[in-house]
Amino acid sequence: MPKEAKARILINALLQRSGWRFFDDETGPANIALEAHVKLKKKTLEDLGDDFEKTANGYADYLLLDGRGFPIAVLEAKSEKFDPLVGKEQARKYAHSQNVRFAILSNGNLHYFWDLEQGNPVLITEFPTLVSLGHFHAFKPNPDALVVEKVETDYVAGTQNPNYRNDSRWNDAGQRDGFIKDAELKFLRPYQLRAVAALQDACRKGKTRFLFEMATGTGKTLTAAAVIKLYMRTGNAKRVLFLVDRLELETQAWKAFVRLLKNDFRTVIYKENRDDWRKAEIVVSTVQSFLFNNKYRRLFSPTDFDLLISDEAHRSIGGNSRAVFEYFIGYKLGLTATPKDYLKRIDPAKINQRDPREWERRQLLDTYKTFGCESSEPTFRYSLIEGVRERYLLNPVVVDARTEITTELLAEEGYSVMQENEDGELVEQSFFGKDFEKKFFSDETNRIFCETFLNNALRDPLSGEIGKSIVFCVRKDHATRITQALNILADAMFPGKYNSDFAVQVTSPPEIQDAQQMAVSFANNNLNGHTRFLEGYISAKTRVCVTVGMMTTGYDCEDLLNIVLLRPIFSPTDFIHRSRAAEHVSLPSATTKKMAARFRNTQNQRKGSNSSTSSLSASTLRRSSTTTRLLNCRRCARPGRDCNRRRHPRQSHPVSRT
Questions:
Q1: Which domains are delineated in the chain?
Q2: What would the pLDDT profile of 189-211 be if each residue is shown by its tens digit?
């Protein structure tokens, strides 16, 4: 037998791991057969060969039996060299002949589960157990009711306050906006309505998996709330699991669903309600909680959740997390701004020539494939460009703060310097982008970065101080140095306004114990108290959070104005999530109006006057781009770009902003 495992051996192991038995043992009678009502013999199994090479067509049919010995599913087992889907029609024919509803297609490496009554085969990572197949029979969704349900702009607002239309302030056009803000009513935007309609249309076509590809800041959680109500209201779900992959997103999602749906449905965080989560309709959890000690298999039934929503689906279904995602039956919805397209412009034949399993690995990782969206077309897509064009999002103004050194670090040839070795000889050493703040350190470069940020940062439109900002660093020690540098500079720029709390390091424990709470406090405008720039104005005293991997995807901070990337970003997905974190504020005008109204109310109550704050437009917040240049060399007086800096230490080339 070749070095690599063969299909039959892999398939047999998967069956046994899921509790299926080829022969009678102490756990029960055999429940796998090759023919109906014919007991399997060891010699018959061995005659198949390691890779079904001894069968006539390179595949074999396994019949899986229930506790009474009746067929419950067929398994179309194929050789490794075949795609499992080529046996689809054979499996359909055999399933119908045995009057069973389920089929499994596998070549040992890639597996599909197929409910012949509900839709298309879907990728799975483990074979279903006998118990789970029994649960599948009990799940009978009613897609017709879901398809015809009418979803309008107040679909969620109607749950928040069913009688809002009877309120006098709603019926007064002059007070309506104030009433909506005070009641925190959330009305679906046109594109969110289109997303729900696209899901209903996909259901009408028999789909059970959906993918919403929506730009950061376009309200995926509100859209998810509408989808949850749709499924609950139409009887297509009794309980929903909302999966995230970070603790801060877990709390954030719980707060959102409580705020939006508490009048109709109870929402809990699983780890805080381990004993009574079954009393809730919406369960929020990190995927890590379910994975720990194989908890999802030990403590949950596959039918505990009829709708599973994966937040940031490009991340939360990768690796071992996928096993949790595939374990539960029913409908699956993925939410993401940056799906991973591992199949785009890929020729399976060429890949298989290099590595026979590469194509299969790519299919398991591909976000579109996972959610049943072929040809890289999601169920619904709403892009950044559309959001900006329709004035729901703001395109960021980019300030280019590259220095000559950092530009060369990112170049293919890198940045070279001459350094003395142990023998006192000058040797050339090259550094690259990945070496920044790991092998290559420059306090001067970091100082220039910090100065450029402070000189060009958007200011709070009411108080005039530096707008709330997040700085992303390379490592925790880099974040520590940047935090110190920012506090020193801020103390010089704004004497008496801060106590070394202008910038705060927010990185994961053990260095920073309360990092999670600090991120929440920053969003809630009470991190280290309130601003000293404007009396009565509620905004965080701390203006900058310096982090590494926290406060990225999905972090909500409605009045965030600046994002600073003090690290090389090599992943397009990573760049989008970090640079678009500020999208969670819609247009600045909407946010500033909200802040101005809050401040006006406070001032009017104090002064008893009719003072007002002038309106602010997006142009008030606009800044011009900034670049940096190298000054003349201190050693040879040549322009920095012309000097052979390999002969001089890099301190000879000061950098200034222009």
A1: 7-138 (3.90.1570.30), 143-151+188-389 (3.40.50.300), 404-416+441-628 (3.40.50)
A2: 999 999 999 999 999 988 888 99
